[in-house]
Structure formats: C-alpha cells, structure tokens
Amino acid sequence: MSSRKDSPFASAAYISLVYSIFCTQNSKNKSKLSTATYENCLTYRQDNEMHSLLTSIHCNEIMDEPSEIQSFYKGKTIFITGGSGLMGKVLIEKLLYSCSDLDKIYILIRSKRGRTPDMRIDEMIKLPMFQRVRKQKPHMIKKLIPLNGDVTLNDLGLTEEQHECLINETHIVFHCAATLRLEANLKDAVEMNTVGTKRLLELGKKMKKLQVFVHLSTAFCHVDQEELGERVYDSPDDPYDVMRLVQWLDEDAINLITPKLIAPHPNTYTYSKRLAEKLVSDEFPNMPVVIARPSIVTPALKEPLPGWVDNLNGPVGLVIGAGKGVIRSMHCNANYHAEVIPVDVAINALIGIAQKVATAQTKYKNVPVYNITQSTIRPMTWGEVLEKGKKVARDYPFEGQIWYPDGDIRSSKFVHNLFVFFFHLIPAYLIDFLMLIFRQKRFMVRIQKRISDGLEVLQYFTTRDWVFHNTNMLVMWGDMSPKDKELFPLDLLHVDILSYMRDIILGARQYCMKEDLSSLPRARIHQRILYVIHVTTIYLFYFGILYLVYKNVEFVRVFLDYFTDKMKMLPLVGSIIETHSS
C-alpha cells in the first residue's frame, strides 16, 4: 500500500476529514453572529412564520361558512391507519385544522420502544408541524383517539370493545399503513401491505355507517404498464395464494423464489401493493372503496410548514446524501420525468377524493381510481431537478460536509459504476483507514454500503419513464368550489420550483438533520474550503494520471517530446519555452 503522501487523493481526503472534524468540534462552541449575519440566517424561519400567519388569517377569512368538503366532514368519525408516517401525520394535521367540525379521529397505532400509543400521540402533537393546531385550535387535539393495534395482528390487535366502537361509529376509513422499505423481504411486505389490507377490509365490511374506504396505494404498483390509466389492472398472481405461500414456506425458501415470483416488479413493496389493490377492487361494489395512487412523495409545498419532512425515505435521503458530499453519482436518465408530488398536495387530494366518492350522485361502474400525479400538469425532468437542486444546495449547505457537493447523474450504468468505485468506495476506505490510524470508530464503508443498496433500489425508478393519466384528479379539482380550492389546493402549475427546492433543502436541514439555521454562515465557510480542496484534488488526480502515462507509455513520451520540439520552433512560444527550460 502506498503511503498517504504518495497519493494526492488521500492527502486531500485527509485534509478534508481533519477539517470537517475541526469544524464539527468548533460548532459546539457558541459564537456570536453579527446582526446582519443573524438576520440572514433567520430569513427562512421568518418566512415560515409569516406563511403560517398569513395562512391562518386567510383561512379564517374564508372559513366563515363551511365549504362543501368541510360540510361533508362535519360530525364524521374517521379511522386512520399509518397515522405515524409522513402522510398519516400530515393527513391528521390537515383534518384537525381545516375540518374542525369532525366528530373524532381514531388512529391505529402500536406501542413502540417502551412508548404507549398515548405517549406517541403526545409526542407527535408536539412536533413543529402541529404548531398551528396547538396555537389556534387546541381543542381539536382532544378529538384524537389512539387505538393500540397493528395491521399485522389478527383483528388488528384491538379489543372487542374497540372493534364495536369502530363498527358502530366509523364513517370514513383512510388506510395509509404500509411498509415503505423497498428492500423488505417478501414475507414482511405481504404481511404488512397485503394481509394488513385484507384485515382492514374485513373490518370495513362490518362498519354500519361506512361511507367511503380510501386505500392508499402507489402510482408505481403496475411497473409493467408504460401508461398507467386510472383503473385496476389484473394481478399476475392471486393475492390469497401469495398470502398462503408466505405463511407455509420458511424464510430461506421465500427468499429463493422471490425474484421470480415478483417479476417484473423491482421490489416487494410495489408487488405487495399491487396484490392489495386486487383485494380492494374485489370488494367493489359491495363496499364504497376507492384507490388513491400518489407518485413519489416529497416534502410539503405549503402546509403544515413549507418543506416539512420527518424521514429520510426517497428523495430526501438522496438530497441529504448529496448535500453532505457523500453521494457523488447516481444512475439516472436526465431526460426522464421526475414523477413526484408534495405531501400536502397528495393529502388535499385524499381528503377531496373521500368527499367526492362518498357524495357521488351516480353509481360508479368500476372501482374509482385516482392517480395523484403531476407530470401531465407540470412536466419536469430529473435533469432539471438536478440543475436547480445543485444551485440551492450550495446556497444553503448542510453542516459537516464530508466533501464538496458536486455529484451528478449518469445514464450509463458502466460510467456510473466507475464513478462509484473512484468517488464512493475508494474515499470511504481511505477515510476509514485514517480513522483506524487515529484509533477512531470506522463508519464510512458501512455508510457507503447502505447508500449503494438504497441507490440500487431507487435507480429502477429513475432510469425508466412512465405516463400517468390523472384525469379523475383534474376533474375533481375542476369541480371544487372556489372556497375548497383555497382550503385544499391541488394546483401545481404555478409552483415556483426554485423556492420549493429551497424549502426542501432547509426542511431536510431543520426537521431531519436538526441543524439550526444559525449555522448556515459557518457551513458556507466550510463549503468554500472544501471547494478549494475539491478543485485541487481534481487537478492533482489528472496530473498524476498524465504523469503515469508519460512515464510508462513510450509512445506518449515520444509524442510529447516531439510536440515540445515543434513548439520551440514558433517565435514567441519557443522563446517562452526556452526561458522556462533554462
């Protein structure tokens, strides 16, 4: 193994690592910022507070009389599964704030890590996303009723008394519970996403006042369809056969047959959600079911807070990984559509869908399906997302960057793998080697392994293009009253992409990474130093390659010597070369 001083890349990595550690230690010391800098740091926070204030004033003005959607939810009892997830929390917050005349909301939530359902609900209500409910409508919090249960348990793990309450009182069901782990094994995915849906449907059939059962699916559950219409497609396998299969076979046997069984699906998540759709559609028309298919869900556009997000799933994890300088390359076609939807827009659609289906004047001939997508409204490619995202990410850098954030997307799998080897794996091993020398805990190789696994799963969706028809959603938006359009906006046509990108970056920074906005000036200084290291490393790297080629390839050396001799014959250039040679 060559020494560190023999490798320009290793030297740069060492300098970057030492500097990052130094800055991380210094960040713990409280430094007094100048007034101008402090005001600059608080711009985003003030924008959020102003947004909340203006939203509150605006909503109060238009909520003198209830809208059609608000009138529908008046006095209703709602049952929600998956309430602790991103979409579930945003749904609960929106219902509490904008549909305040509802009767109550039952939330299926399990105990977790020693915390009871009541404790988890209390913790959830304390999140920043519930601040407008806490301040303006604190009485609504009492309408949340947690039920200790789990969709993976028989009878949802509920008591007989709880069952009776749901059967006798529930008007609306939002089934949002699902495992979002794309790499989950088949048994876990089927148990949660398919069997869990079956259990909810069995309970729903007993509900005496049920008006609508909203099943949250995904726009990518039919990956074999290049054009996805708003209808249910045949499932390649019978859901009941698959559910029995995962019960009978042991885990090794299941893992062995999984790739062939789920094909053409890239993962167990989309496969199990497709099976669940079949179960839901089979209950139509005996049950008032509807299937909602959002695309890739991104942080909030406006509500409850611009940029709100609380997990690292999907694009947010990529944003943070790239912003920290850890992700340098991604396999992606820049010309393909980025099919994403802000979480608050998706939730507004869910709330509107429930009202529209429940109050429909004419009976549906087929199970209603809504594709909650935006590509037909505001087409945007992955290349555009990257171009705008890079600019914003550099203006609002994350703390503790490992390297200057200059990653890129590549359509060639071969080229991408080369970049992964040189800019993901080699730096990871170098950093871990340095940590070993300094007797520190090694972490970078492990992190890169997790990143590689995650990218491998996500890249299926960034290297393919689909067309999602969303006529039903557009018709619903067109049929909404002006008041409902203000309260439950679905308009994506007039979104300021750069502003939204800024909200995503700062939202991930604040809510996921817990990085205070006051650290932005320090993070920018850190990033500028990393930029110098980054550029220096690139030049040293290419210089080293040229030097090795020159020293070891006879033809190249002869050619360069010949070229130099010819250049000396030129009057001006020759004199310069002679001067430097002497």
Description:
The protein is of the alpha/beta class and 582 residues long. Helix content is 55%, strand content 9%. The protein is built from 23 helices and 13 strands. The protein has helices at 8-26, 35-41, 43-62, 68-73, 86-98, 117-125, 131-136, 160-169, 186-204, 239-248, 251-262, 268-282, 315-323, 343-358, 382-395, 413-437, 444-462, 471-479, 482-487, 497-512, 520-552, 554-568, 571-581; strands spanning 77-81, 104-109, 144-148, 172-175, 212-216, 227-228, 289-294, 296-298, 329-331, 340-342, 369-372, 408-410, 467-468. It has a seven-stranded parallel sheet, with helices on both faces. Helix 5 links the parallel strand 1 and strand 2. Helix 21 (520-552) packs across helix 22 (554-568). 40% of the residues are buried.
Low-confidence stretches: 1-45, 59-63
Strand content: 5-15%
Q: What do the pLDDT scores average to?
A: 84
Shape: elongated
- The strand line-up of the biggest sheet is 3-2-1-4-5-7-11
Task: Please outline the major beta sheet.
Answer: 7 strands, parallel
**Strand elements, count:** 13
Rg (C-alpha, Å): 28 Å
SS-based structural class?
A: alpha/beta
Helix content: 40-55%
Number of discrete helical segments: 23
What distance lies between the first and last C-alpha atoms, to the nearest angstrom? 37 Å
GO molecular function: alcohol-forming long-chain fatty acyl-CoA reductase activity; alcohol-forming very long-chain fatty acyl-CoA reductase activity
Catalytic activity: a long-chain fatty acyl-CoA + 2 NADPH + 2 H(+) = a long-chain primary fatty alcohol + 2 NADP(+) + CoA
Membrane topology: Multi-pass membrane protein
InterPro entries: FAR (IPR026055), FAR_C (IPR033640), FAR_NAD-bd (IPR013120), NAD(P)-bd_dom_sf (IPR036291)
